[in-house]
Write a structure and sequence with these properties.
Strand order of the largest sheet: 8-7-6-5-4-3-2-1-9
Helix content: under 10%
Shape: elongated
Radius of gyration: 19 Å
Order of helices and strands: HEEEEEEEEE
Number of strands: 9
Length: 170
């Protein structure tokens, strides 16, 4: 019996979702940063993203990124392009809410850092601030070699990221 109560309550909240072009523009931009390790080398990554919310639940996201590390072996720059399915819920004013995303993508960079990826995460919006977290699983087409050991880098990489951002709309 309690399950039915929660289901009805959830449905009522879902029907109050409100989305307009004023609160959800088609084109947005954002800046981001991440850190991690790959092949025993630490790196930091900065990015500039351009989002095209071309349909209610879909976002075509293109990100120019620059990765630099404690070795030139992990330093690179390139473009990520992904198609995200997004579940969005926000207040009428658009000042608070959340965005869950999941989708595939393609990373274009130097030969050793190009590959396919899948990503998922959640972003909470509070006023002009976005807070969230996500994961990106990368599968490199042709991984490079470690300059010290000569061993081939792993063909896959898991990147965990925290989202603390602002951004803007066009």
């Amino acid at each position: 019996m309690a399950f039915g109560f929660f289901f009805v309550s959830f449905q009522a909240q879902a029907e109050r979702r409100y989305r307009t072009t004023e609160s959800s523009p088609q084109w947005t931009w954002d800046l981001g940063a991440a850190a991690g390790t790959y092949g025993n080398y630490s790196y930091s990554e900065f990015d500039f993203g351009l989002n095209d919310h071309f349909a209610e639940n879909f976002n075509w996201r293109n990100v120019v990124w620059d990765r630099f590390g404690n070795s030139s072996a992990v330093s690179s720059m390139g473009l990520d392009s992904s198609l995200r399915y997004e579940l969005v819920s926000q207040t009428e004013s658009g000042s608070a809410g959340f965005r869950f995303f999941v989708g595939p993508g393609l990373r274009l960079a130097s030969t050793q850092y190009s590959g396919a990826f899948g990503e998922a995460g959640v972003i909470f919006r509070l006023g002009g601030l976005n807070l969230g977290a996500g994961v990106k699983a990368l599968n490199y087409f042709s991984p490079g070699k470690d300059p010290v050991t000569g061993l081939i880098f792993p063909s896959s990489d898991m990147m965990y990221f925290i989202i603390i951002s602002g951004g803007g709309a066009f």
